[in-house]
Amino acid sequence: MTSQRPKALLATASVAVALAAADTYVVVLALPDMMQGVGLGIDALQKATPIISGFLLGYIAVLPLIGRLADLVDRQRILMWCLALFTIGSAITAVAVDLTVLVAGRVLQGIGGGGLVPATLAIVASLWPVGQRGTAFGVVGAVQEVGSVLGPLFGALILHLWDWRAIFWVNGIGGIVLAILIRLTGGRSSRSELASTTIPRWWHALTAVAALACVALLGLALVAPESLTTSIEYGDPFVPYEGHDARLMTPVGLWGLGALSALLVLSARYWWPILRRADLFGALLIATVLGCLVLTFSSANPETEVVGPMGLWLLPLGLVAMAVYLWWHRRAKEPLIARGAVVGRVLPALAVSLLVGTAIVAIVVDVPILARLTVTDDQTEAAVILVRFLIAVPVGALVGGWLLRKVGPGIVSAVGLALAAVGLFAMSRWSGNVLDTAQATVVLIAVGLGVGLAIAPVNDAALADARESDHGVTSALIVVSRMVGMVVGLALLTAIGLHQYYQEISAISAPTEADYRAAGVRQVNTVFLGAAIAATVAALLSWFLGRKPLQRIDGERATTAL
């Protein structure tokens, strides 16, 4: 694709990435209010798990498909559709009074928000030549981390001024504004589009009518305006059927679902040829694999289990789906992940991304835990201590992108991750009130800078070796590997740490509160040690990303000494 204002397009797409990243963490403070809004008590926390895991599922499972679509159609159009899904999901979440509807909204938010990242990375690769992408990749990585920092703060501000539903209304409005800006700053695609069949005007009109009916009827069913629901004349369509209390299980709700079904049938002429070309069967298999992985580990109770209660059948199902995909990958004419897409530095980049995800999540989760064990009982104060790390990550991402102009991606990433590993090894020995000292501040900032330095080099090296026609799916795989590292790494490291915790407590006949705190500190130390090992391995693997600056060879790929 081309654009007369690539920097403006990058800035707008990056803000969209930040908005989606913020939404990943925005429910941290709002979750109790959201549970109350759908009729769940605070003691039903386990039932509320899908509010979080549903977003993660949507974010991760469909990423490869969206990445593939970004290689087949205009990437600006993919951004627009992702923002549309994010906006629709935000609106559904905002009006939900049933858990099922709320989770459906969060899943749509996850799909739309997750797809923004690979689409934006692929756009960067299209608009900037090899050797000049580092800063742009650094900007994308930085704003994504800034969004993660601002998410809980944004949620806290909205909760202070309004209520939890306003969070998602603001998200929806932001999605609409950003879609307009992307349309204004983007340009025409320079890549060939899929040939489209001629569709008569009456079919367009019929589809539009179905879309309007769907929005109107489902909107009425979910919002359920009091002026209508309490009306003697107009209230009957809003009365739930016997044995149901969900708003969709009403006449107007079923009419809306019928309109949605009609819309899907009518619109299939637009999206089915593209999905078929994108290898929908392969996408379903990969989504099954990733979905099983996410649900297995994200639903686990870390105090008693490594995998969730459904893991005993989800993991075998995921293995079967992976085996079928590997068979399908060899057989399909155009597989979801093109044959030869994972070449050169793509594979080490995926490994580094996975390990970086493990290191990041260990810090994000366990630094506040350590703070509450040693220096404060207040959750907000514990979170503020983590901000020292979170602010340093986007700074490191910007610096790492800038350094790629003169330094090879392997060196930038290796040095950054080595710095992070040294800091994490130091953190694995923390105890007492160390978090109140200047030493802790220096270490947390150093680890954040080190992790941030690796973000742009990973993307730059991988997309330099990938074919231009595979940039979307390659970008998606990098994001997926990082998210998988976060989900699985957290579960494994926490399980190891808690095993040590319970061993220490069981060895004490009458443990005191001090004993529990000391064992808790050592459990956190174990997690930091595991993260340090992950960062060390990632630093070693980074050397395979290339030790010389990337140079443009043929306008598409670049090679450099490994």
Short description:
With 562 residues, this protein is mainly α.
Overall description:
With 562 residues, the protein is mostly helical. The protein is 74% helix and 0% strand. It contains 20 helices and no strands. The chain has helices at residues 6-25, 27-37, 49-61, 63-72, 75-95, 99-127, 134-161, 164-185, 201-223, 226-229, 251-277, 280-298, 311-331, 346-374, 379-403, 409-427, 438-453, 455-465, 471-506, 513-542. Helix 14 (346-374) runs antiparallel to helix 15 (379-403).
The global form is globular
| Overall mean pLDDT | 84
- End-to-end Cα distance: 30 Å
- As a percent range, the share of strand residues is under 5%
Query: Fraction of residues in helices?
Result: over 70%
Using only C-alpha atoms, the radius of gyration works out to: 24 Å
Largest sheet properties: none
Tell me the series of helices and strands, N- to C-terminal.
Answer: HHHHHHHHHHHHHHHHHHHH
Question: Class by helix and strand content?
Answer: mainly alpha
- Put simply, the count of helices is 20
Low-confidence stretches: 190-196, 552-562
The total count of strands amounts to 0
Write the layout of secondary structure elements.
Blueprint: H1 6-25, H2 27-37, H3 49-61, H4 63-72, H5 75-95, H6 99-127, H7 134-161, H8 164-185, H9 201-223, H10 226-229, H11 251-277, H12 280-298, H13 311-331, H14 346-374, H15 379-403, H16 409-427, H17 438-453, H18 455-465, H19 471-506, H20 513-542
Helix pairs in contact: 1-6, 1-7, 1-8, 2-7, 3-6, 3-12, 4-6, 4-19, 5-6, 5-8, 6-19, 7-15, 7-18, 9-11, 12-13, 12-19, 14-15, 14-18, 14-19, 14-20, 15-17, 16-17, 16-18, 16-20, 18-19, 19-20
